[in-house]
Amino acid sequence: MNVALLIDCENANPESIDGILGELAEKGAINIRRAYGNWKNQAGWEEKLHPFAIQPVQQFAYTKGKNAVDMCMAIDAMDLLFTESIDVFALVTSDSDFTPLVLKLLAKGKSVIGFGESKTPEPFKKACSLFIHTDRFGRPSDESRGSSSGGERWSRKELRGDTELSNLLRAAVEAMKGEDGMAPMARVGQYIANNSSLSSKNYGYARWSDLMRATEYFEMTSGDNHQPSFRNKKTGTAPEAK
Questions:
Q1: What are the extents of the domains in the chain?
Q2: pLDDT at 180
Q3: Options 3.30.420.610, 3.40.50.2000, 3.50.50.60, 3.30.230.70; which CATH number does 156-232 get?
Q4: Residues 6+ apart with CB under 8 A from 234
Q5: pLDDT at residue 148 tops 50
Q6: Is the pLDDT assigned to residue 213 strictly greater than 50?
Q7: Which residues have C-beta within 8 Å of that of residue 86, sequence separation ≥ 6?
Q8: Is the dihedral of CA 189, 150, 134, 164 positive or negative?
Q9: Does the predicted TM-score (pTM) go above 0.90?
Q10: Average pLDDT in the 206-211 region?
């Protein structure tokens, strides 16, 4: 797929770029890479542009208190939407003002991946097809380079304490279960993608199946193709033969 990466440098940490590009490499070719900011006073990002082939887009603040960078980035996104063949828009920002842009891109059949800090307002997070926290991204060390999850794993207690996550996983397994009461991971993953912008990597897990095992909410079996299937321990039981 063709990916367009648009970075709001006023609301993004430059040290997160390694992790962001690593995530997007799994999605397709990042043909368009643009970073928006006022390079007269934008600290940290300039040294990241050349090594990662990111095009700088200069935007002066014409009027104090007005965010010209946001406007420029939104206009460019709309221009790309109608003039280029883009499958995935990756927006790097923690600014919820981009929520209407996300909704417009989704309405046109595009996927939108948001990258931002965990403090990012919920409306923007939930609007995205997928939202990935950048708090865990930093300058890669020899130990962390190549890590597929890139962050400290949440414990069983922490996972269970996240009500939104727990409800989503239980609902996914219940909705996708077959006649044997088991829900194949492929169908569970599809349900999660269609009903949430959460990413397992925000919790330190490379795959949803690993996270689901860690919650200990589910019974698990492996089929002939070695793909796991899950069943809610409390409510899911195999139907009795009639």
A1: 2-133, 156-232
A2: 85
A3: 3.30.420.610
A4: none
A5: no
A6: yes
A7: 2, 3, 4, 32, 80, 110
A8: positive
A9: no
A10: 88
**Burial (0-12, 13-18, 19+ Cβ within 10 Å), 22:** middle
User: Higher model confidence: residue 202 or residue 6?
Assistant: 6
In whole angstroms, what is the distance from residue 51 CA to residue 199 CA?
28
User: Which pLDDT does position 63 carry in this prediction?
Assistant: 55
User: Among candidates 7, 29, 27, 26, which has minimal Cα distance to 17?
Assistant: 7
Pick the CATH number of 2-133 from 3.10.450.50, 3.40.50.80, 3.40.50.1010, 3.40.50.2300: 3.40.50.1010
Residue listed under structure tokens 């965010």: 67
